[in-house]
Amino acid sequence: MTVAFWCVLIAIFLPYLCNSIAKFSGGNFGLRQNHDPRAYLETLEGFPRRAQAAQLNSFEVTPAFAAGVIIAHVANVAELVTIDVLAVLFITSRLLYIICYLADWAVLRSLVWFVGMALIASFFFVSI
Length: 128
Fold this sequence. Notes:
Layout: H1 3-25, H2 37-42, H3 47-74, H4 80-103, H5 106-126
Helix pairs in contact: 1-3, 1-4, 3-4, 3-5, 4-5
């Protein structure tokens, strides 16, 4: 299994990291809130709400990243190291994105998001 495929697995779990941050930094998540966690998450404000938003964005971008990695592998890109490097850079950009979201650095977060999207596009360009 390539490094890029491991990065897909990491990307799949990043939203759950954000979800845990949202739930447990809200201060009162317990068994009662676990009966309807989505309703609970919608009531959050500030830091926990930003963690929830980072979770949702992570769910949105992961399929495109996974598709890019798979397509690059199927296209038999000559240098597998290229795919691996792009994947590691993407995971790095996602971690920075989450940090920026949690810290409420909106402009930097948007720039990091664009970098991540460019990295996804790169998988398709190296497959040509």
